[in-house]
Design goal:
The protein is mainly α. The chain has helices at 2-73, 85-96, 102-113.
Amino acid sequence: MMRRRGGLVRMAATTAVVAGTAGAVSHHQQQKYANQAAQQQAASDGQQLEAQVAAQQAQLDAMAAQQAAPVAAAPAAAPAGGIDMEQLKQLGELHTAGILSDEEFAAAKAKLLG
């Protein structure tokens, strides 16, 4: 009779170990798949963010080109005898806003001042 109980206890213990191992493996697989999904989502979000940044940069470049075009034509329209203060103020505003670099600002100012 003891032998049979030992067999039952052993079988119950083996079943418990197998069930516990299966549960642990299942949990590990679920975590692995969740991490993979999170990485894929992050990569997708990163690509979308890069596309948005590129679109915004293109818009800023277009705006800078539109604003720089009148500035390039402005020195030709300057009166021969005097300084056009309005154009000088516009150059300063464009430089302050970061649209014109220091070099571009200096060159445009030099043309305007003669």
